[in-house]
């Protein structure tokens, strides 16, 4: 998704993935589909700013191993 060249392509991929998840009758998958639907705007915001919390998460991961 984040490798998509632009927001529109990412949106189409997100919708296609969501549509693939919806018919699967597993609690975890249903929860994932619901979360993706709820967080769609936040995920797509990456394409407006190209900002990521990856460096912060990496630092937190390193510190938790200390």
Question: How would you describe this structure to a colleague?
Answer:
The chain has four helices and no strands. It has 66 residues and is mainly alpha-helical. It has helices at 7-21, 27-38, 40-49, 54-64. 73% of the residues lie in helices and 0% in strands. The mean pLDDT is 83. It is flat. The longest helix is centred in the N-terminal third of the chain and has 15 residues, at 7-21. Helix 1 (7-21) runs antiparallel to helix 2 (27-38). The chain starts with 6 loop residues before the first helix and ends with a helix.
Keywords:
single chain, 66 residues, mainly alpha, 73% helix
Quick synopsis:
The protein is built from 4 helices and no strands. With 66 residues, it is an all-alpha fold.
Shape descriptor: flat
Can you give the helix content as a percent range?
Answer: over 70%
Residue fraction in strands: under 5%
Number of strands: 0
Radius of gyration: 15 Å
Terminal CA distance: 32 Å
- The quaternary state of the protein chains shown equals single chain
> Uncertain spans, ≥5 residues at pLDDT below 50?
none
**Count of individual helical segments:** 4
For the biggest sheet, the summary is: none
Mean pLDDT: 83
Element-by-element helix/strand order: HHHH
Helix vs. strand class: mainly alpha
What's the arrangement of secondary structure elements?
Blueprint: H1 7-21, H2 27-38, H3 40-49, H4 54-64
